[in-house]
Amino acid sequence: MLNRNVFSIIDNKIHEAGSSDPREVAEYFGIMVVDLLGSIAGYATHYSFLPVIGLNTRLKGNWYMFGGWHELAHVFDGHIYETGFTNGHCDSSFFNKDVDSRTISDHERIANLVSANVTISDEAVFDVTNYNSETMRSYRELKAFQKEQLHSFEQLKANSGSPMVTVRLMDLKKQIDKTGSAISDLEFDIVASNCIKTFSEIAMELGISERILHYKLEAMRIRGIDIDRQELERYEKMFSGAV
Q1: pTM of the prediction?
Q2: Residue 62 φ then ψ, to 5°
Q3: What mean pLDDT, rounded, does the chain reach?
Q4: Is 10 exposed, middle or buried (0-12, 13-18, 19+ CB in 10 A)?
Q5: Are residues 75 and 145 in the same domain?
Q6: Considering the domain boundaries, does residue 243 fall inside one?
């Protein structure tokens, strides 16, 4: 079961250590780091009460951050002290299963969510997806408003029968059409603002795999920052006739 507080715990650890570098964080909190060679990418365990993580010396750049925080998550979320976890636990590769996979363990899912969240900043995702642009903010607001209108329309329709309700339905239908027209106008603006990017193109700009991007977006959603997955697909898929 995902501990939703794990992201706050990790943020506090980074703040206290004054660094997000896995080795520096480990050193600050008295976690032994063992250099690994060969096929094992990393592991997390403990000797007596001493937490230990292993990292392959070949891990560089983002993979160093991903691997380090994957193992640190096992430590900070207490996995290493759970019965059976430390017996031979090691990782030959990270992110080898999708975030929504039914076969991934809770421990590994949490570790991947934490490592993706720390390594890729929210700001980087916002920048690549133009999330905070005025056009995209307006688009999200209108889509949310349209959803509310459609919900109200369905509720009225379920209770239709009287002339008064019929008039209200007609009026609401005009409002929905007006909102839809405003959304269509914004769709053309979005197309013109270089937002036409596939999910793979966004991952490429961030320098990560699509699988890791899914983990990052899920981590953001859990933290209350919900980026509509639709906004990350090609816009012509959702903007019928706009491209």
Answers
A1: 0.76
A2: -60, -35
A3: 85
A4: buried
A5: no
A6: no
